[in-house]
Amino acid sequence: MLTTIVREGRAVDVVVALTKRGNTLLLDRDQGKAIFAYRLKRAPVSTVPGEQTAPYQPVFSLPAPYTAQEFGPDQITDRTDSATRTVRRKLRGATYGLFEPPRIGGKVARYSLGGGAEWPGGAIDQRAGILYVPSSQFPWVIRVEYADIKATATSGSDLAGNALYQANCSRCHGTSRRGSAEWAAAGDAYIPSLTGITAVRSREQLQSTTYFREQHEGVAVGSRVEAATLDTLYRYFLELDRRSDQQRSFVFNAFFQTVLDDRGHPGSKTPWGLLTAIDLNTGKMRWQVPFGQRDVGRSDGATARGLLNTGGVAVTAGGVLFATGTTDDKLRAYDAANGGELWSYPLPAAGSTMPTVYAVNGTQYVVVVATGGILRGFSGRSDRVIAFKLPTSRR
User: Fold this and answer.
1) Residues 6+ positions from 31 with CB-CB distance below 8 Å
2) In this structure, what are the phi and psi dihedrals at residue 338, rounded to the nearest 5 degrees?
3) CA distance 42 to 228
4) How far is the CA of 3 from the CAs of 12, 311, 339, in angstroms?
5) From CA 322, how far away is CA 307, in angstroms rounded?
6) Under a CB-based contact definition with an 8 Å cutoff, are residues 193 and 145 in contact?
7) What pLDDT is recorded for position 222?
8) 148-180+189-250 belongs to which CATH class?
9) CA separation for the pair 81, 19 (Å, rounded)
């Protein structure tokens, strides 16, 4: 976005970019220099072979972040006891941190892989230099696993443990040990790949009935496993991994997923969505309010304030914000001065882009593309484009 701000009494043309981690990048449009100072922080080093991470990452204090920067165990959902247990189980063994790199066989839990800001970005009141941005904050996990690119290397029909594996494990992990994972629009079901498992887990872990039951919590097979069975499977996996290593057919698969509770809601505490006003002249936050509201079955009976959103916002010269894209499928109007909600209208599906404001022959209109969202939590799809007009208007 292009706008003009005032710095030390001087007008400065700037370019504004919003990020998924919740920062606003503000650069002098002519010289490309940062308007607000930032510092570099020493970053963790990747342990994935062949991957080189930057030794430092930028940390911004201004403009003020419009979402939480880091997700941690204290941010796990408290919607219900069952929801909390489900998410804690899914995040067992995870590492946390804004710049924590993925590691083989592990998982990193964090906000911001899907936003922070979403693809429509924000809107700016050009007269005052005020930025308005809708955003989401809900947890994701990043995983890196071994994969085998040669089918011959996954064949173990000649090994003693093959029949045992195919009879008891292949239904979930696959005949070739590849596992499976849903993408974010479908859910967060995940079954780990067992390819390369002897390189990322110790022999003691893989032969431990306690560890096996912990990893298979909720799966019937986890309650009746015996030590001798695990020993046979370990030797089977070890030989398959040795063959893959000899053929140099190991590669890495990296992917990320949302973290959902037992009812498909985001696995963090609310708010899951925010609407924020930032003064670009000073970098300071003017106000911030939860964006959207709905019943999500909380134990205390309260509705969730602040919802997952993928829409956008438009600001008018009259000081009104029109915002859409929340999972409650509503178009809302807010007071641009303080974030107070003025009006809402239920749409057939969530607005999937920013509202458009225009005028024809002195009459003002707002039009919304209400086609829905693709992530879990949205109600569905529609083919509707809906326009509203003011009953009276002045030129």
Assistant:
1) none
2) -140, 0
3) 47
4) 9, 22, 22
5) 16
6) yes
7) 60
8) mainly alpha
9) 33
**Cα separations in angstroms, 321 against 143, 221, 275, 287, 344:** 39, 54, 10, 13, 11
Q: Is the sign of the CA dihedral 166, 167, 173, 175 positive or negative?
A: positive
> CB pairs under 8 A, 24+ apart, for 84-91?
84/261, 86/261, 86/262, 86/267, 87/259, 87/260, 87/261, 87/267, 89/217, 89/218, 90/141, 90/188, 90/190, 90/259, 90/267, 91/139, 91/141, 91/259, 91/267
> How far apart, in Å, do the first and last CA atoms of the chain sit?
27
Bridge-based pairing of strands 330-335 and 341-346 is antiparallel
Q: Is the peptide bond before 63 cis (omega within 30 degrees of 0)?
A: yes
Residue boundaries of the structural domains of the chain:
2-139+260-389, 148-180+189-250
Distance of CA 146 to the CA centre of its chain: 23
Q: Are strands 130-136 and 273-279 parallel, antiparallel or unpaired?
A: antiparallel
At 184-216, the pLDDT tens digits run 888 899 999 999 999 999 999 999 999 999 888
Q: How far is CA 46 from CA 57, 123, 225, 250, in A?
A: 13, 37, 35, 18
pTM check: above 0.85: yes
pLDDT tens sequence across 255-291: 999 999 999 999 999 999 999 999 999 999 999 999 9
Is the pLDDT assigned to residue 154 strictly greater than 90? no
Residue found by looking up tokens 């939480």 in the block:
68
- How far is it, in rounded angstroms, from Cα 43 to Cα 54? 7
Quick: pLDDT tens for 102-118. Answer: 999 999 999 988 889 98
Q: Can the peptide bond before residue 271 be classed as cis, meaning omega within 30 degrees of 0?
A: yes
- Check if CATH label 3.40.50.2000 holds for domain 2-139+260-389: no
Which string of b and e fits 300-338 if b means at least 16 CB within 10 Å?
A: eeeebebbbbbbbbbbeeeebbbbbbbbbbbbbbbebee
Verify cis geometry, omega within 30 degrees of 0, for the bond prior to 116.
yes
Give the residue-averaged pLDDT of 316-323.
Answer: 95
Q: Does pLDDT of 347 surpass 90?
A: yes
- Spatial CA neighbour of 71 closest among 106, 46, 93, 99: 99
Residue located via tokens 């990747």: 46
